[in-house]
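We treat protein structure as text, and this decision shapes the records that our systems exchange. The tokens are whole numbers drawn from a learned vocabulary of local backbone shapes. Below, we set out a record of this kind in full and without editing:
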Amino acid sequence: MRTPWGDTPGGAGISMAEQYDFLRTRVSRRGLLAGAALLSASPMLLRTGVADAAVPMGPRWLSFGDDPQTAMTVGASIPGSFVAATVEYGVDTTFGASIPLDVQGVAGVSTVYGAARLTGLTPGSSYFYRVRVDNQTTNPTTFVTAPDVAGPFTFTAFGDEGTTSAAATVVGQIARIKPQVHLLAGDLCYADGDGHGTVTTNLHLPIWDKWLRLIEPAASQIPWMTTVGNHEMEPGFGAQGYDGYLARFAVPDTGAAGCPATYHFRYGSVAFVQVDSNEVSYEIPHNLGYSTGAQDTWLDSVLSGYRQPGSGVDFIVVSMHHCAYSTNKAHGSEGGIRDRWVRLFDQYGVDLVISGHNHAYERTHPLRAGVVVKKVAKGGVVDSSIGTTYLTVGGGGAGTTATFLTGKNVVATSPGKPKQTLPANWSARKSGSFCYAVGEVTPSSATSGAILTIKVFNRWGNPLDNLVLTRAAPPPPPVVMAAPTGVSVR
């Protein structure tokens, strides 16, 4: 099938929003009633009715609310009919509190998805929770809120996961590490197998459920903080194609106006900023410019706020799907990021940018305006106020593409035009392996600087790379370098 409601016009010149408008205006009322729940004011249908004799219990997953110290969101899927669904939670297995799941159905699948936003929690505290659907319950599981005093913690990251055996192995590694935060840099499950943002015969929506079962061993205990990639642009699912993603993941409400997949949050002394790189992509331009500048304005404001004196933030970590800098010719480098966001990363001293898209691992030397400011070998130490390190960790399980170029990169420089091949002396380490990254944070104090140790492993836990980013205490203003005259930074 192409969309759950029939064909839409495709091609390089039509945006996701135009496809959505076409369906709303051209599909018959009978077609809408048959399956186009998506095309009403709300794209989802509430699933209620007579309960099954024994309601099947689907997987659960966590994500932080707006403030990780006091808010956690429990996601759950329910594959059968039911009357009532709630999340019960408390500091022990007597629970003591409950909240209804906000349940939505998604066109094209029979499963329904729920989110319970738990608020008013105590910082730095462990809670038990379980999902109740009529008379059935899941086993009790725990989560921990962020502390209100900065301390050491660990986060993990990868992109491009899918539902392969390699993906399951990587999830097992994350479950073993038990980080306080996990970042997933887009391309979650590949229900849209093409990822072109256009008409497709390769849309298999039940893959979402397979993927949610795969991540549950880790995501039911570790907040799974996701962002969108090109494979989350599902034709017909809302103006950007994100409604299927958003039905399953209730992200924090801290994003840019009109950009529903963007948000930011702070854990300890680290600010995490999740951006929608589909909105700036020249390579796959079907969501290009949909925010009409709102995301750029928001990003400027968010980064500026985290760099204000007294913010308590040592490191800023930005997560997105596309790569600003990659020598892998599978997708190469995204010129839209360079044109619109790199200047902001430079201006506000972003320490680390994590991407996927290219199914491999690659790290840059620290950069300002695309220029190497210091070469950092494996095991090296660098003051990250001098430059931003870009990390591609797209080996989360969907496949590997070890198609690296030497000393050059291909860059998408405008929509629909051939990529340009340009020099690249900024690549520090690379590997075609399945991979994941681990960040170990030690906050700054009155007498010592902050430390972010980055370790990268293949899916079996064997080391691929490591380095240490440091920040003085308090963080100094970032150094912004202008590009040398006549030298392209692309």
DSSP finds eight helices and 28 strands in the chain. Confidence is low (pLDDT under 50) at residues 27-52, 484-490. The CA atoms of residues 22 and 158 lie 35 Å apart.
